[in-house]
Amino acid sequence: MHRFRIDPSTIDAVLVSHLHGDHFGGLPFLLLDAAFITRRTRPLLVVGPTGIGQRVHRTTELFFPGFWRNAGERLITFQEHVDRLTVSVAGARVTPFRVNHPSGAPAFALRVECDGATIGYSGDTAWVDGLLEAAHGSDVFLCEASSFERPIPYHLTYKTVVERRAAFNTSRLILTHMGADVIARAGHLAIECARDGQRILVGRSTRR
Questions:
Q1: Please, where in the chain does CATH 3.60.15.10 lie?
Q2: pLDDT tens per residue across span 155-175
Q3: What percent of the chain has pLDDT over 70?
Q4: How far apart are CA 47 and CA 45, in angstroms?
Q5: How far apart are CA 51 and CA 122, in angstroms?
Q6: How far apart, in whole angstroms, are the C-alpha atoms of residue 136 and residue 7?
C-alpha cells in the first residue's frame, strides 16, 4: 500500500474470502502499522468467515507477542459472513457465496456493490455454480486460475474458467491467483490477467 501511495488509515474495511495465510496473513502487519505508524484513530472493520476474529488474534499474537494487550483491541472489529446474506460494509453491499475450499472455516466468493459498480471475486475454490451468481451482471469479476490445466485440489484451472467464460455474464473477467504456468502464458490467453499494481476503473461509464 505504501508502495502505491495508499494511506492505510483511509481503509475503512477489509473483506476476507477464507482463512488461508496468503489471503489474510497481511492483516497483522496492517494492524502493526495502524498502531505504531499511522496511529489509526477509528477501528478497522474486518469481515470474514466464521472464526475470523480468533484467527487474526492468534496470528498477530504469534508474530508480535503482547500486541493485543498493548495496542490491538482498540484497532479492529470483526464481523462474520453468512452465506448469501447481503450486509452493508463501509457503504458497500457485500454478498458472500459459499465455495469449495477447505481452510478451517467456510470459504466464500464475494460480490461487492458500491456507487453503481459491482465487483465479484472468486476467492479460492474448485468449480461451484455459485461463482456465476457472484459474477452475474458485474462490471468486473476477479477469478482465480491456479494452474493452466493441471488439476490442483480445491482450485480452478484456466481451462475450466475459459470453457465457462460466457456463463459468467460479467463485463470484464480478470484472472488472479495465477500459477507459474498461467503467468508464463499471460498476454496469449483469451482472458485478461491481473498485473501487480494494476488500477481497474469500474462503474456505469466503463461497462461495455
A1: 83-208
A2: 999 999 999 999 999 999 999
A3: 97
A4: 6
A5: 20
A6: 32
* pLDDT given for residue 208 in this prediction: 41
Residue 17, CB-side half-sphere exposure with 13 Å CA sphere: 26
**Per-residue exposure over 132-151, b if at least 16 CB sit within 10 Å of its own CB, e if not:** bbbbeebbbbbbbbbbbeee
How far CA 17 is from CA of 109, 154, 157, in Å, comes to 6, 14, 19
Q: In what order do the strands lie in the sheet with 192-193?
A: 87-89, 92-99, 107-114, 117-121, 140-144, 173-176, 192-193
Architecture of domain 83-208: 4-Layer Sandwich (3.60)
Contact 122, 131 (CB under 8 A): yes
Distance from C-alpha of 20 to C-alpha of 43, rounded to nearest angstrom: 23
**pLDDT of amino acid 126:** 98
| Cell numbers that stand for 103 in this block | 481452510
CB 154 within 8 A of CB 125: yes
207 confidence band (pLDDT: 50, 70, 90): very low
User: How does strand 140-144 pair with strand 44-48?
Assistant: unpaired
Distance CA 82, CA 99 (A): 12
